[in-house]
Prior knowledge:
Shape: globular
Mean pLDDT: 94
Distance between the termini: 34 Å
Number of domains: 1
CATH superfamily: Jelly Rolls
Largest sheet: 5 strands, antiparallel
Order of helices and strands: EEEEE
Amino acid sequence: MDAGAVLPKHAHLHEQTGYLTEGKIRLTIGKQVFEVNKGDSWCIPGNTSHSAEILKESVAVEVFSPVRDEYLPQKVK
């Protein structure tokens, strides 16, 4: 994720868990604001509004539970 990028406030049904492997982000979950650094992790409950600001070029690994339909392979006809 590029420094200066903003992920706007949104929510979805899926629980979202993440781990920051590189960089620094400001993550807002509900009304709480967190500065997330390399090696930190987070968990966002389903249906909870959240947003992020990328403070330093970053790499995150995220898991959604249950898996989001748009991340499933499409059937080949």
